Amino acid sequence: MTADRAILVFDIDGVVRDVSGSYRRAIADAVEYYTGGAFRPSAIEIDSLKSEGVWNNDWQASFELVCRYFEGIGWNRSELALKYDELVSFFQSRYRGPDDQNWTGYICDEPLLLSPAYLESLTVGGVAWGFFSGAMRDEAAYVLVGKLGLNQPVLVAMEDAPGKPDPTGLFAAIEQLENLQGLAKNLPVIYAGDTVADIYTVVKARQLQPSRVWLGMGILPPHVLNDAVRCEAYAAALIDAGAIAVFRNVEELTAARIWDLVK
């Protein structure tokens, strides 16, 4: 095994699992429900909101889309009888299902975007890895432990840190990896994510800890891959936000490619 020479931290949604038919579907469901069926945002409209770089939390994104719809037809936000907690409950009833103890919702059908063999190849290649996600811890564990079969992976989730683009959670994931694996404290860090907020997280981390090498890697989410124009626009937004490179799938980010990027 090669001595660890870099740290790779993954976002989960859109990188490890395809959420186009789950989280994003739940966003559309919630917005449609709370606008009385008047507005169901398209994938492009959801992408447009997320390209602002501050709507990583899908509950907040749903709430914002509802508010903007009503503002667009002449209402003020202060006039809306919209309750955030109720919207969250509705969202979760779609994503997890109506029974929170026995999930049957959209989460059950999320395709995987990487394999355990890929993660093992990173380990063999000298790349330490972990996860920093805006997903709730049990929802992240559903894919990491339940589907990928990982044993106690390093994971910083929604409950553990402020939302992105605040880099606190990224710092926490790195610290856990350093402590658990005895890593040097100055290894280059790569964060792989599929949104502008993910890339902004790396930019902010670099501003706060400029002595370390920080690289943001953009990953194109599956819902844009079949449209060349959308792919190009989505990749451009990630590059504009500060991504060093953009990949169609995270498994293209091999250990060898990482060494090319950090050397």
Quick synopsis:
The chain is built from ten helices and six strands; from the N terminus they run βαααααβαβαβαβαβα. With 263 residues, it is α/β, with parallel strands linked by helices.
Structure characterization notes:
This protein is of the alpha/beta class and 263 residues long. It is built from ten helices and six strands. The protein folds into two domains: 6-18 and 110-262, HAD superfamily/HAD-like (Rossmann fold), CATH 3.40.50.1000; 23-108, no CATH class. It has helices at 23-34, 43-50, 58-72, 84-95, 116-124, 137-147, 168-181, 196-208, 228-241, 255-262, and strands at 6-10, 127-132, 155-156, 189-193, 214-219, 245-247. Helix 1 packs parallel to helix 3 (58-72), helix 1 crosses helix 4 and helix 3 crosses helix 4. The model has no long low-confidence stretch (mean pLDDT 96).
